[in-house]
Every structure is written in structure tokens, then in C-alpha cells.
């Protein structure tokens, strides 16, 4: 069962307002409530709220808003809240991060353990720590390099390292200084988790602690999420909220499709089936004039169909005002929930057709790391975002029936059998495979340069497709005689090879971009260009030696997920664009005898389906075809 959990601020749930919040929970058809607890709040009120929602049939839990600290003031924090002061996190430039506490400070661990013990005495069914239980992601410079952390790192590698030496070691080839950094960061978080677990065990061993995960857990913090989830859970059930939130599409340069792919990637890393996974359905800072409900609804529906999540932490109310101040999230959820259930039922299971995105967690442990991409951007499914933005279905947890795609340093860790027939590559992955003895069509790399791409030019049509936000790292190279360049880039007024096809003597086919895709702006036209979309679709079919199951071109940000069963083929469409999709022409790989539609109307033709109704902006629909 896909479980809906609803967070709300504990301090706003009072004797006078509880019935208002209970009504919202019942209308949402949720299963669980998380009461967000800020430091120094009234524990009697928290206990009463927990008991109230338990009596009314909800799993009643607590979400601790801060532990190590976010480093910034949360918009929903009480004003002038007093906090104790402990040793702060320090980054590798030697700067203290205000509003944070180092987990190696024993006084901090003692004080935070006391808070968790007091919360446990209120008898919640789960205590979840917010995603500030981390060391890095406080700006672009890694943490923690306080004196306690530095001393442990020096002991780990047996040398008197400086912060500058450690910072330099984090890029380039694997080395003992980076190993020492990663080991110490991870162990400091594991030890803090064990201390917090002991504090809760003093009250009730059955109350699980849970973690909200972030990027740096899988990179600079070097955390094994399976291990730390076990530590936190103790003798209770295992719960993990993963990373990737719809508000990123409003407040950062991530696209909505990018957020979906990021969330699917993180779910694929969870290898313990006993862990309940929750998606981060956050619309921070939550009134709809900041983050629209339409983003949340598409995000929720896509992850239901992906099949890797057990549920979602989905926001229904505002965090600062009264229960009815912002009821739009609830209204849109209620409107869409019946159709979401119907589509998920008709889809019939997880997405299982598409290009397989090859990616690895904890990349920093063993890879040669490019200095061109920020360390806080690992792991990142760049290949998946390109494919998804181009309307090509992707998968992460099965082979998908098509070729693979691998960008960046992740190529170092792939199983050769995963690219037996070939793959879609960028310049970094092409280099890494060449170093492993795989011929990807390049004679010699001549150097890199950061530059702007003003146009992509199709060798077939001659069309000059204009770019936006197109600054990237380009790799000059001499190419082998069998290479077929299909796209050129106009750089400083000169056309240079941008993407090519190549089949080596072993019969492996590659489609290679001569750019480091991790350096491309997330909303660049390089992701969205029609000529790029066409050539990428053609390349996937050429490498896979079969047609894509469905194609629908020239509809920007139309995201597609597919599932095939013995007697049917399902296609879910997500219009992640502010433009409606008007009468899209859908090309199918096979002939079908009939089609069922949910959320749209469509007519079936010869290897075709045509919408007879528009797919509105930020709407989703399902076509289910039968042979």
C-alpha cells in the first residue's frame, strides 16, 4: 500500500485547533501524521497531540526539526527561539557554519540525546530527524573540518594534514587523504546515531528513529544509508525519507522532470526491502504562491507509478498560519486522488520499460573525480534527466529492455555486461570507458575548455536550434574513421562536433556527447532542443536495435513512463510544462486493437494514437493499449 504521511507544526495544533487538523487528515485519506517539533516547545502539548491523533486512528509521529542544524534560519521557525551553543561545523576553508553543531562535541550529543529522550517519553510511534543530520551541504565547501575532525583525520592517515591538503585531495584520483576524510565523516555520524538510539532505548526500545536523507550522505559524508537506518531503527521498524522535492523546481534551477529522476535514482539505491521509503513531497516554504500544488501532484503520481516508494511525506497545510490559511494543497490532492488511484491500478505495477540509467552511490570512495562538477552534485542522474526531458522513458531498477546510459565518473563502476550492446555517453564516461579498454570512437582527447554553445546544428536537416543557459565544458578530440557526427555545436562562431554515433569492432554501439553533461545548466536548451531530442531517440533505437515503445516529439517537458504486461502496454504522460499539449501525435512500436484512456481522450490509428483532448499544463494521463 502506498502510504500518505502528512506533516504539520506541533505548536499550531492546540486544544482549539485540533478538530480543524483532524478534519484535514481525514479528508486527505492519509495514514500517518508527523508533528514537527521545534526546540524548546511545550512537551505537554506534544504529548497531548500524539495521544489525540492516535485515538482518532492515525499513526502519530514526531519530526524533529533540527539536530546538527541547517546553517540557516528555517522560515517556519518560531522567532527569537533560544538555542544552546556548541562547537559549530567548520568547512575546509576554515569558516564556521553559524546555526550548526558538530556531532563530535560531547556536550551537543548529551543535550540532543536529552531532547530525544523527552520526546520518546511522549510515546510517538516514530521519531524522524530532519535532513540537517548531515555534515556537508552548507554552501559549496565541504564540512566538517573542525579541530576534532581534523585530529581524527590525521590519526586515520598518519600525517599532519592541513585543511588545504584535504580539500585538494577530494578531486582527482582516489587517495589516502580522501579515504581518511570519508571514513571520519561517516563514523562521526554513525556514533551520533548510536548515541541518539541509546537515549530513546532508555524510554522504549520499540520506538524507531528515522532519517531524512540528502545528497551528501551518499558522497562527502560517506554514509551507508542501509547501515545508519539500521542503527536508528534499533528494535523498531525501519523508515527512510529519501531526497528530491517538488519545491526545487520553484526555488532552484532543477526542473520538475529533474526532481522526479533524482527521486527515482535515490529509491533505486535502497537495497534493503525491509526499509519503508518515503518520498520528499515538500513544497517549502509552502503557501502556493511560493510552490504550486501542481508540481506536488505530478511528483506524487510519477513516484506512485515508479513503484520503488512505499509512500510520500505530503504537505497539506501551511506551517506558519492557521489550518485553513492554505487549503489549496488539500483541495488539489482530493481532486487528483481518485484519478491517481485509478491510474496506478490500471498501470498495474512499477515502470518496467525504458533506457536503463547506470549510476552509483558513494562515488567519492573510489572514483577519479572531475574538478568541473561541484562535489555537492554527487550522485546526480544527469543521463536520466536528459532522457526524461527528451520524452524517452527511463528505468533504474531493471534492464528496461533497451540500451543503457551512463554519464560522468559513474562509468568507472559499471558491469561490462550492462553495456554489452552499447550505451549513451558523455565525454567523461567515454574517457573512463576508453581507460578500461573499450573503444568509444575517440583516437585522442586534446583538452577541455569551458565555453558557451549558441546553437545545435543538425547534420541531417541543417536546422540551427538556439540555446539558452548553454555554458558547458567541451572536450576537443580526434575521432576515428567510423564515427558519424550527427550534431554540431556552434561555439564562438565555429561549428564543432557535438554528438556522434560509433560502432566498434566488438559490435558495441555508442552515442557520445563531447561535453561534460554534469556542467550543463539544469534548464539549458541543450536538454530541451528538438534536434537533440530526435537524434537521441534515433540513437537509442540504433543502439538497442529496436524501435522505442512510444514517441511523442516537440512537446517540451512531456515526461513519459511505460509498463508492459503480457496483454497490454501502458503509457503515462506527465505534462511538466506551462503549455498545454495540443493534439499530440503519438507513434507506437506495435499495432494495438483498442485503447483505454484515463485523464484524457485519444483515438487509435495505424501504429498511432492521437489525443482528441488537450493535456493541460501540469496534468497527467494514462493510455492503456491492448493487442
What can you tell me about this protein's structure?
With 627 residues, the protein is of the alpha/beta class. Helix content is 29%, strand content 24%. α4 (147-157) crosses α6 (176-201), α6 (176-201) packs parallel to α7 and α9 runs parallel beside α10. The mean pLDDT is 95.
Task: Quickly describe the structure.
By secondary structure, the chain is of the alpha/beta class. Helix content is 29%, strand content 24%.
Structural class: alpha/beta
Mean pLDDT: 95
Shape: globular
How many extended strands?
Answer: 27
Count the DSSP helices: 15
Strand content: 15-25%
**Helical amount among residues, as a percent range?**
25-40%
As a whole number of angstroms, the C-alpha radius of gyration is 25 Å
Largest sheet: 11 strands, mixed
Poorly predicted ranges: none
What is the CA–CA distance across the termini? 29 Å
List the helices and strands and how they pair.
Layout: E1 3-9, H1 18-28, E2 32-37, H2 43-55, E3 59-64, H3 106-120, E4 127-129, H4 147-157, H5 163-169, H6 176-201, E5 209-212, H7 225-233, E6 238-241, H8 248-251, H9 256-268, E7 275-281, H10 293-306, E8 311-314, H11 328-347, E9 354-357, H12 382-389, E10 394-395, E11 401-406, E12 422-425, H13 427-435, E13 442-458, E14 464-466, E15 471-479, E16 484-491, E17 494-503, E18 509-513, E19 515-516, H14 525-528, H15 530-544, E20 550-551, E21 558-564, E22 568-575, E23 585-588, E24 594-598, E25 602-605, E26 608-611, E27 620-626
Parallel strand pairs: 1-2, 1-8, 2-3, 3-4, 4-5, 5-6, 6-7, 7-8, 9-10, 9-11, 11-12, 12-18
Antiparallel strand pairs: 13-14, 13-15, 13-16, 15-19, 16-17, 17-18, 20-23, 21-22, 22-27, 23-26, 24-27, 25-26
Amino acid at each position: 500500500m502506498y502510504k500518505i504521511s502528512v506533516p504539520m507544526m506541533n505548536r499550531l495544533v492546540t486544544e482549539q485547533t485540533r478538530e480543524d487538523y483532524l478534519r484535514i487528515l481525514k479528508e486527505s485519506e492519509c495514514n500517518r501524521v508527523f508533528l514537527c517539533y521545534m526546540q524548546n516547545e511545550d512537551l505537554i502539548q506534544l504529548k497531548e497531540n500524539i495521544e489525540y491523533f492516535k485515538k482518532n486512528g492515525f499513526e502519530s509521529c514526531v519530526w524533529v526539526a533540527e539536530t546538527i542544524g541547517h546553517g540557516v534560519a528555517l522560515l517556519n521557525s518560531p522567532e527569537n527561539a533560544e538555542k544552546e551553543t556548541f562547537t559549530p561545523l567548520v568547512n575546509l576553508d576554515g569558516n564556521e557554519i553559524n546555526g550548526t553543531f558538530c556531532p563530535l562535541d560531547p556536550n551537543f550529543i548529551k543535550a540532543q540525546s536529552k531532547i530525544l529522550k523527552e520526546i520518546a517519553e511522549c510515546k510517538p510511534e516514530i521519531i524522524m530527524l530532519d535532513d540537517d543530520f548531515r555534515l556537508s551541504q552548507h554552501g559549496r565547501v565541504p564540512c566538517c573540518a573542525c579541530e576534532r575532525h581534523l585530529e581524527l583525520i590525521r590519526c586515520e592517515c598518519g600525517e599532519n594534514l592541513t585543511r588545504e591538503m584535504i580539500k585538494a585531495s577530494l578531486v582527482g584520483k582516489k587517495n589516502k587523504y580522501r579515504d581518511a576524510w570519508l571514513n571520519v565523516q561517516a563514523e562521526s555520524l554513525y556514533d551520533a546515531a548510536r548515541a541518539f538510539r541509546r537515549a530513546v532505548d532508555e524510554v522504549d526500545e520499540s520506538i524507531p528513529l528515522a532519517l531524512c536523507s540528502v545528497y551528501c550522505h551518499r558522497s562527502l559524508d560517506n554514509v551507508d544509508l542501509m547501515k545508519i537506518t539500521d542503527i536508528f531503527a534499533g528494535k523498531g521498524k525501519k523508515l527512510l525519507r529519501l531526497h528530491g522535492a517538488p519545491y526545487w523546481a520553484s526555488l532552484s534551477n532543477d526542473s520538475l522532470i529533474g526532481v522526479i529522476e533524482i527521486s527515482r535514482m535515490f529509491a533505486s539505491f535502497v537495497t534493503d526491502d525491509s526499509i519503508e521509503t518515503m518520498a520528499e513531497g515538500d513544497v517549502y516554504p509552502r503557501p502556493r504562491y511560493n510552490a504550486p500544488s501542481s508540481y506536488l501532484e505530478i511528483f506524487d503520481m510519477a513516484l506512485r507509478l515508479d513503484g520503488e516508494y512505499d509512500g510520500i511525506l505530503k504537505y497539506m497545510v501551511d506551517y506558519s498560519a492557521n489550518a485553513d490559511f492554505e487549503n489549496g494543497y488539500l483541495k488539489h490532492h482530493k481532486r487528483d486522488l481518485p484519478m491517481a488511484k485509478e491510474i496506478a491500478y490500471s498501470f498495474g505495477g512499477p515502470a518496467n520499460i525504458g533506457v536503463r540509467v547506470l549510476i552509483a552511490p558513494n562515488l567519492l570512495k573510489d572514483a577519479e573525480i572531475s574538478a568541473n562538477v561541484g562535489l555537492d552534485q554527487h550522485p546526480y542522474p544527469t543521463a536520466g534527466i536528459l532522457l526524461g526531458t527528451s520524452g524517452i522513458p527511463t528505468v533504474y531498477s531493471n534492464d528496461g529492455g533497451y540500451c543503457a546510459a551512463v554519464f560522468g565518473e559513474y562509468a568507472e563502476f559499471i558491469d561490462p555486461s550492462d553495456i554489452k550492446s552499447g550505451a549513451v555517453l558523455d565525454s567523461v564516461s567515454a574517457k573512463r570507458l576508453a581507460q578500461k579498454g573499450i573503444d568509444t570512437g575517440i583516437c585522442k582527447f586534446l583538452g577541455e575548455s569551458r565555453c558557451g554553445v549558441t546553437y545545435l546544428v543538425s547534420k541531417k536537416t541543417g536546422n540551427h536550434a538556439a540555446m539558452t543557459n548553454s555554458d558547458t565544458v567541451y572536450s576537443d578530440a580526434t575521432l576515428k574513421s567510423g564515427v558519424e557526427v550527427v550534431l554540431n555545436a556552434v561555439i564562438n562562431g565555429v561549428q564543432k562536433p557535438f554528438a556522434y554515433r560509433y560502432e566498434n569492432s566488438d559490435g558495441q554501439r555508442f552515442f557520445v556527447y563531447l561535453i561534460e553533461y554534469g556542467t550543463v545548466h539544469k534548464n539549458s536548451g541543450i536538454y530541451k532542443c528538438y534536434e537533440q531530442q530526435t537524434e537521441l531517440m534515433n540513437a537509442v533505437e540504433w543502439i538497442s536495435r529496436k524501435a522505442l515503445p512510444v514517441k511523442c516529439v516537440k512537446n517540451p517537458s512531456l515526461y513519459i513512463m511505460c509498463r508492459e504486461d503480457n496483454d497490454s502496454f501502458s503509457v503515462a504522460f506527465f505534462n511538466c510544462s506551462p503549455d498545454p499539449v495540443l493534439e499530440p501525435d503519438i507513434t507506437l512500436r506495435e499495432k494495438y486493437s483498442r485503447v483505454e484512456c484515463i485523464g484524457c481522450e485519444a483515438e487509435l490509428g495505424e501504429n498511432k494514437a492521437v489525443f482528441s483532448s488537450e493535456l493541460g499544463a501540469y496534468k497527467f494521463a494514462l493510455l492503456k493499449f491492448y493487442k
